[in-house]
Specification:
The chain is mostly beta strands. The strands form 7 sheets. A 5-stranded mixed beta sheet has the order 6-12-11-8-9, with no helix packed on it. Strands 1, 14, 17 and 18 form a 4-stranded mixed beta sheet that branches. A 4-stranded antiparallel beta sheet has the order 13-3-15-16, with no helix packed on it. The radius of gyration is 21 Å and the shape is globular. The N terminus and C terminus are likely disordered.
């Protein structure tokens, strides 16, 4: 009887969790208008991107789940590869240590001035990796001091109930305790969408998102360099804005 009671209790705990699933719809994006002119296009030894990056995946996450959640023991990686951050978007639990390996055959210098985590890894060579522990929740915007077109994002979240949407926009978050929550869908080119949702015992709750098309300032406006030349700024003018320039397509005036 005791064994049966324990099994019943375990089953009850399992079925007290539910799942969230659905699809994040993004408006179709126009094809990249030409090739990128990279600031260091003359450098050799790195396979460079010759088109604008594809739209990054959306991240769907539960905002307000209660509990204590230990970070993973294995560190995820945010590589510098092909003069880009790979993956472009990473979602992690607060307290996670992320490794930043340099897979290119030239130096990189990853930094962020986001309020949730300010850091500057300095310049490091091919094959080297430097870790950063993200101990506060929030959105981290990543840049490279040497290659101003490089941009990446790390979303540091309070609980493990999150998922990156697949290429078709579908997502699934398993093991969510039954209850009422706020569910957020985030994508770098759009304002986040937040909805109230209830998760039922032992079932899957469906929630789709349709993100309205907005401007893409991160792709067009670049970032203002926060470092003066004496501190390693990658441009001559400390007030300059780094931009990702697009060559116009033949036959257009754009």
């Amino acid at each position: 009887m005791k064994v049966g009671a324990v099994l019943l209790a375990l089953c009850s705990c399992v079925w007290a969790n539910g799942a969230l699933e659905g699809k994040v719809s993004l408006p179709k994006r126009a094809a990249a208008e030409g090739k990128l002119r990279l600031r260091y296009a003359g450098q050799t030894g790195a396979k460079q991107q010759d088109t604008a990056p594809a739209p990054s995946p959306a991240v769907v996450f539960v905002e307000d789940a209660a509990g204590t959640f230990p970070p993973p023991t294995e560190s995820p990686k945010m590589e510098q590869k092909g003069l880009a951050f790979v993956p472009r978007v990473l979602a992690v639990l607060v307290g996670t240590t992320v490794d930043f390996p340099n897979q290119d055959t030239l130096q990189h210098n990853v930094f962020s001035y986001s309020p949730a985590k300010r850091f500057d890894l300095g310049r490091f060579r091919t094959g080297e990796s430097r870790p950063v522990t993200f101990d506060q929740p929030g959105l981290i915007r990543l840049y490279c001091e040497i290659h101003s077109h490089m941009k990446g994002f790390i979303l540091v979240l309070k609980n493990p109930y999150f998922a990156l949407a697949a290429e078709d926009g579908s997502y699934k978050i398993a093991g969510v305790p039954a209850g009422s929550y706020k569910l957020t869908a985030w994508q770098e080119e759009h304002e986040p969408v937040v909805v109230d949702i209830a998760v039922a015992d032992g079932g899957a709750t469906k929630q789709d998102f349709n993100l309205a098309l907005g401007t893409a300032p991160d792709l067009q406006a670049g970032h203002a360099c926060p470092k003066p030349p004496a501190q390693g700024c990658c441009c001559a003018d400390p007030a300059a804005t780094h931009t990702m320039e697009l060559e116009p397509l033949p036959g257009t005036n754009r």
